[in-house]
Write a structure and sequence with these properties.
The chain is mostly beta strands. It folds into 4 domains: 97 residues, Immunoglobulin-like, CATH 2.60.40; 94 residues, Immunoglobulins (Immunoglobulin-like), CATH 2.60.40; 79 residues, Immunoglobulins (Immunoglobulin-like), CATH 2.60.40.10; 42 residues, no CATH class. The protein is built from 1 helix and 29 strands. A hairpin with a 2-residue loop joins strand 13 and strand 14.
Length: 382
């Protein structure tokens, strides 16, 4: 019974309120609605207004509601006079709330009061997610991506953009509203690409996304140049001649070996000014039957445009005899008899053609008696 009595009281109160409204003067409120929502926005959410939800609170707790209103001009009739607070929410076709506004109006008796309201985007923060890619074969060995954020009424903000492979994603929380940003791709400390500023729209609790896929011709590419310098000052070829010994007899041969830093393109052997028959550049064999005395062997080689030469000097002795080089004006090893003398690199006897060696010694050998002898002399270079 108490529950029924309560309902009856509410009904009576409602009737009384309605009766009071019938007696009191009435007014009309015309709402002119518009929005400041850009039609070309970047967020994933649609920002096209599909309909409005309108709520009003007036004197003595009076209320009204207009739902699903597609028009931007709405007339609400029969309102009590006095101050009304009106709230408007904007929704897209998916019934997602995309904007709101509120305003106050004084409703006058028997008059139409106009309240103009602009629906603006919701306040709060949203996200900017922008992807930058470049070809894997572009040669960007050490990619680094940085970004600059331009937010209205704030100083520019520099950010480092994470890089994974050939992709960089700028993922940043920003306040709702309009912003701009630019990206720069570097290869190490060298700039490969710099983008122009991009304007973006940030909506509360939504994500604004986009991407740029760079091609090779978008990039300023860099490479390393390794410079290898080889000196070719056309210096003589490093070479030398050697042999097991420097003195042979007229019955012996001697192999002279050449040591060269490089293989020559051409070569020639010379002995005492005469060219020898070619036997290769690595070695030359001389003898037997060479003249007694000092000899000079020369190897002449050509390497490109460079000529080089090396000499080897050796001596030839008579087989089983004695050899003396009087080129130094001395009779080395000899104890000469008074009838023998050295002059002008020659051995002289006085009187001429004496056959007596008495008193002449060579080393530990004694010469005496009559001997047939022949004196040969040679003037050798050096």
């Amino acid at each position: 019974m108490k529950r029924i009595a309560g309902i009856a009281a509410l009904l009576v109160l409602a009737v009384l309120l309605m009766a009071c409204d019938l007696i009191a003067p009435k007014g009309q409120l015309v709402l002119n609605l518009s929005d400041a929502i850009n039609r070309t926005l970047l967020p994933d959410i649609s920002m096209e207004v599909h309909h409005y939800e309108i709520y009003g609170t007036g004197p003595s707790g009076a209320q009204f509601a207009v739902t699903g209103q597609p028009q931007q001009t709405v007339t609400v009739e029969g309102l009590r006079t006095g101050l009304w607070h009106v709230m408007v929410d904007a929704y897209n076709a998916n019934s997602e709330k995309i904007g709101s506004t509120s305003g106050d109006a004084e409703v006058l008796p028997n008059q139409i009061v106009t309240l103009s309201m602009i629906v603006v985007p919701l306040e709060g923060n949203g996200r900017l997610r922008y992807t930058l890619t470049w070809p894997s074969d572009a040669g960007v060995a050490h990619p680094q991506v940085t970004g600059t954020l331009f937010i209205l009424n704030q100083d520019p903000i520099e950010v480092t953009v994470p890089v994974q492979g050939t992709t960089a994603v700028l993922d940043q929380e920003l306040p709702a509203g309009y912003s701009a940003f630019s990206l720069t791709l570097k290869d190490g400390d060298k700039t490969a690409w710099t983008g122009n500023p991009v304007a973006c729209r940030i909506v509360a609790n939504q994500t604004t996304s986009g991407r740029t896929d760079l091609q090779r011709n978008d990039l300023t590419l860099y490479g390393d140049l390794a410079i290898q310098i080889g000196a070719d000052l056309q210096n003589p070829l490093q070479m030398s001649l050697s042999a097991p010994k420097t003195r042979i007899t007229t019955l012996e041969t001697l192999v002279i070996t050449a040591s060269l830093a490089q293989v020559p393109s051409a070569w020639a052997w010379y002995l005492d000014g005469s060219q020898l028959q070619d036997s290769g550049y690595t070695a030359m064999t001389v003898g037997p039957n060479l003249a007694v005395g000092r000899h000079r062997l020369t190897l002449l080689v050509l390497n490109g445009v460079v000529l080089s030469s090396a000499d080897f000097v050796f001596e030839v002795e008579p087989a089983g005899g004695f050899v003396e080089d009087f080129n130094d004006g001395l009779a080395q090893g000899w104890n000469l008899h008074g009838n023998f003398a050295v002059q002008n690199a020659m051995l002289y006897s006085n009187p001429a053609y004496t056959d007596s060696w008495k008193g002449c010694e060579y080393g530990q050998s004694q010469f005496a008696g009559a001997f047939e002898y022949k004196v040969e002399y040679h003037t050798l270079p050096g």
